[in-house]
């Protein structure tokens, strides 16, 4: 009797462990490539570092790619896919969101395919490259001496690549720079991200550049009556108008003047002064939770923002991921395997 009970207990325990194990197999985890491709993270880091040392402005596009990947169909590398004869891909959405940095992802992929063919997904490369770009842009870590502990955050990996990319989904899922706080919160909530995540992740705009056309109407024709966005500091509007003439398609402006390649908390100081480039940046001042986060940056150390940013990035990096046997590991990031 005791033996039967024990056996039944053992059976149940085995079942539970098996179920737990398969549940975990479906989840992302730090060090997913430890055995299958031990140098995976080092290869991505080396690639990003080599481009960064030639041109530190590469960090902005790399960080933004991860956001655009995750918000459209989950973090499945769909942002990297080229359009086909029959479908227009995310990167060709109108406007195509001036995405950049694809060549860095492609270079990392090429090196990874040499080291361990068919193992590392393009979606994971984007996630790792975003982390490495931010870590390099903090400027506080040496390029060669960095160990995993020096990263701003650890990236759970194990994403697989999707096979679909649609321009229409990019338009539908990415928030507009003219969005109000309620729209921004709703857009983030639809991805399982909170108002606090919104305030934290908007801090990404502490690095990078924007085309004039992304905020032009704030300067010249905000409501269609030749007016300026009242949430923009009027003095700053004068400065921006001198940099961005109406109809300018090519000029870019630093998100944070003089500091667009340094990852820090200056963005929040600008937003407080109503000098964020986008209406969506100023919108953070329209909600209790987001304004609290913005103002709390004044008397918090940079490290507390870095910590928060890492936590929110890991959360963003889990949106709609494909794991286990779903999707595929692309051979080339711009093409699905045939
Ligand atoms: C909250 C909603 C957001 C809106 C409305 C928004 C909008 C934009 C726009 C319009 C640009 C300028 C594109 C151009 O004209 O070149 C931009 C740039 C950028 N965004 Fe966002 N963004 C948002 C959230 C995020 C998030 C969550 C991240 C990353 C975690 C991010 C990272 C970046 C970066 C790094 C750049 C600079 C890109 C470069 O230097 O080329 N953004 N964003
Ligand atoms: C994807 O499209 C870009 C731009 O049209 C092109 O330069 C690139 O060669 C394409 N990639 C592949 C793998 O076909
Ligand atoms: C976005 O569109 C412009 C103009 O059509 C094109 O020059 C640019 O290469 C496109 N960018 C991407 C990433 O496809
Ligand atoms: C401002 O916007 C209105 C409404 O969209 C438009 O009719 C008008 O032509 C615009 N003015 C300028 C100077 O672009």
Structure description:
With 338 residues, the chain is an all-alpha fold. The protein folds into two domains: 2-174, Peroxidase, domain 1; 199-296, Peroxidase, domain 2 (Orthogonal Bundle), CATH 1.10.420.10. It is 46% helix and 3% strand. The strands form two sheets. A two-stranded antiparallel sheet has the order 1-2. Mean pLDDT is 91; it is low at 17-25 and 142-149. Protoporphyrin IX containing FE binds next to helix 3 and strand 3. One 2-acetamido-2-deoxy-beta-D-glucopyranose binds at residues 91-92, 96, 99. The active site is at 68 (proton acceptor).
Summarize the structure.
The chain is an all-alpha fold and 338 residues long. It contains 14 helices and four strands. The protein is 46% helix and 3% strand.
Record the SSE blueprint.
Blueprint: H1 2-25, E1 29-30, H2 40-54, H3 59-71, H4 102-115, H5 122-137, E2 156-157, H6 167-173, H7 181-189, H8 195-201, E3 209-211, H9 216-220, H10 234-243, E4 252-254, H11 266-272, H12 279-282, H13 288-296, H14 302-316
Antiparallel strand pairs: 1-2, 3-4
Helix pairs in contact: 2-4, 2-5, 3-5, 4-5, 8-13
The protein binds protoporphyrin IX containing FE (HEM) and 2-acetamido-2-deoxy-beta-D-glucopyranose (3 copies).
Protoporphyrin IX containing FE is lined by residues 60-61, 63-64, 67, 98, 100, 175-177, 179, 184, 201-202, 204-205, 207-211, 214, 278, 280.
Enzyme class: oxidoreductase
Cofactor: Ca(2+); heme b
Keywords: Calcium, Disulfide bond, Glycoprotein, Heme, Hydrogen peroxide, Iron, Metal-binding, Oxidoreductase, Peroxidase, Secreted, Signal
């Amino acid at each position: 009797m005791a033996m039967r009970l024990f056996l039944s207990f053992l059976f149940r325990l085995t079942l539970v462990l098996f179920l737990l194990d398969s549940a975990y197999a479906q989840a992302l985890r730090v060090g997913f490539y430890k055995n299958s491709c031990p140098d995976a993270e080092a290869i991505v880091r080396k690639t990003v570092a080599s481009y960064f040392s030639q041109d530190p402005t590469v960090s902005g596009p790399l960080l933004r790619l991860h956001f655009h990947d995750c918000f459209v169909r989950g973090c499945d590398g769909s942002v990297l896919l080229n359009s086909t004869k029959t479908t227009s891909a995310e990167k060709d959405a109108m406007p195509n969101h001036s995405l950049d940095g694809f060549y860095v992802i492609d270079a990392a992929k090429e090196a990874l395919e040499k080291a361990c063919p068919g193992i590392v997904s393009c979606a994971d490369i984007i996630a790792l490259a975003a982390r490495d770009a931010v870590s390099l842009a903090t400027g506080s870590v040496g390029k060669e001496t960095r160990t995993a502990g020096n990263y701003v955050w650890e990236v759970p990996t194990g994403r697989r690549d999707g096979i679909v990319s649609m321009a229409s989904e990019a338009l539908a899922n990415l928030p507009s720079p003219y969005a109000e706080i309620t729209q921004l919160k709703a857009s983030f909530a639809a991805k399982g991200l909170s108002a606090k995540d919104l305030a934290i992740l908007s801090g990404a705009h502490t690095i990078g550049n924007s085309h004039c056309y992304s905020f032009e109407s704030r300067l010249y024709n905000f409501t269609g009556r030749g007016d300026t966005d009242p949430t923009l500091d009027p003095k700053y509007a004068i400065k921006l108008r001198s940099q961005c003439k109406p109809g300018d398609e090519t000029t870019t402006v630093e998100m944070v003047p003089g500091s667009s390649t340094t990852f820090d908390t200056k963005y929040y100081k600008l937003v407080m002064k109503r000098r964020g480039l986008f209406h969506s940046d100023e919108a953070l001042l329209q909600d209790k939770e987001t304004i609290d986060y913005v103002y709390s940056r004044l008397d918090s150390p940079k490290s507390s923002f870095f910590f928060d940013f890492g936590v929110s990035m890991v959360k963003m990096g889990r949106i709609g991921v494909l794991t286990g046997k779903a999707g595929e590991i692309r051979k080339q990031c711009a093409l699905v395997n045939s």
